Backbone:
């Protein structure tokens, strides 16, 4: 596993259901993985979405360290800002919960 310690990923999520898995898996399948994935749950209210986030948080097959930050709903901009404030890396890749990155994205943007 190639890890870029200068990159973290922030995923915003609000009632994304299982689509959030695609965003997480697209980060796990990178040729150069971020050192951490931060999911900002922006006040999810949908039971299925809450269950999916809990499953992701408990999934030990995800090799990249993962943090879920839960907050009251403030909108996607507030969720992005929370994720960026939480990140510690020099470069932050921001995704919405329904995004899917090409496998070389992190490697290409961190050059």
Residues:
């Amino acid at each position: 596993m190639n890890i870029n310690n200068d990159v973290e990923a922030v995923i915003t999520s609000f009632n994304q259901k299982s689509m959030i898995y695609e965003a997480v898996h697209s980060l796990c399948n990178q040729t150069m993985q971020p050192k951490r994935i931060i999911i900002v749950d922006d006040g999810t209210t949908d039971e299925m979405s809450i269950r999916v986030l809990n499953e992701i948080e408990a999934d030990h097959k995800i090799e990249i360290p993962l943090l879920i930050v839960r907050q009251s709903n403030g909108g996607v901009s507030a969720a992005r800002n929370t994720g960026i404030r939480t990140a510690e890396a020099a470069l932050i890749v921001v995704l919405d919960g329904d995004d899917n990155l090409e496998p070389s994205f992190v490697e290409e943007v961190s050059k």
User: Anything to note?
Assistant: The longest strand covers residues 3-13. The two ends are 18 Å apart (CA to CA).
